[in-house]
Design goal:
alpha+beta, 12% strand, elongated
């Protein structure tokens, strides 16, 4: 999981229109643009392509993104066979991503590539995000209990998600980790108080705090 050390629940690409839907220029990708984003996301996260495959990606880029300032939601591939090849390549890229989803999560393609927690309470690993979603209640400890621990450029440590800090700065990783662990303990207590022992009982199968 080194390539996905900083992950987050939710969309990982810009949203797009689905086949058959009217285009929304400036707001959503066309289906071809969305498929190209899926291929690009996998490349960013470490998927290696052959020289021939890299050339094909550049050809798609030239047709779908002719300038850096182009408006999204208007470009499509002129050749239907080429569009089919892009769609198949996007499916391969999504399969590659799926194999690298964090434990307790899955990558799915809706109108964007999204990372979702698996909602199976019988699974070997149950994500804290899944427990929070299934609880359907206001749990004050939830946000921090689902946090990551990361180091900033200044050397301090924080607990938060991929974009926000919810606790810190802390001098050491252990100090930040202790804050998240305490929030997880509190979350268990809040779940039991809410009558959700079924969710609280999964705590021994929650994955380690991401760091």
């Amino acid at each position: 999981m080194t390539a996905l050390a900083r992950w987050h629940v939710g969309p990982w690409t810009t949203r797009g229109t689905l086949p058959g839907q009217p285009f929304e220029p400036g707001r959503k990708r066309t289906p071809d643009e969305l498929h190209f984003d899926v291929v690009g996301l996998a490349r960013i996260l470490g998927r290696r392509l052959s020289g021939r495959e890299e050339l094909q990606v550049r050809l798609w880029q030239n047709e779908l993104r002719p300038t850096h300032t182009r408006q999204c939601g208007v470009h499509t591939l002129a050749d239907p066979d080429n569009a089919q090849l892009l769609r198949e390549t996007a499916e391969e890229a999504l399969a590659w991503l799926a194999e690298r989803a964090p434990a307790g999560y899955e990558f799915v393609l809706t109108d964007a590539v999204e990372l979702r927690p698996l909602l199976d309470l019988t699974a070997d690993v149950v994500a804290v995000d899944a427990v929070i979603r299934l609880a359907g209640a206001d749990l004050p400890a939830a946000r921090l209990a689902s946090a990551h621990v990361r180091r900033s450029a200044t050397g301090d440590w924080y607990a938060g998600d991929a974009v926000c800090n919810w606790s810190g700065p802390h001098k050491t990783a252990d100090a930040a980790l202790a804050v998240v662990q305490a929030a997880r303990t509190e979350l268990v207590a809040q779940l039991r108080a809410a009558g959700r022992d079924d969710l609280a009982d999964t705590a021994d199968r929650w994955p380690p705090v991401p760091s």
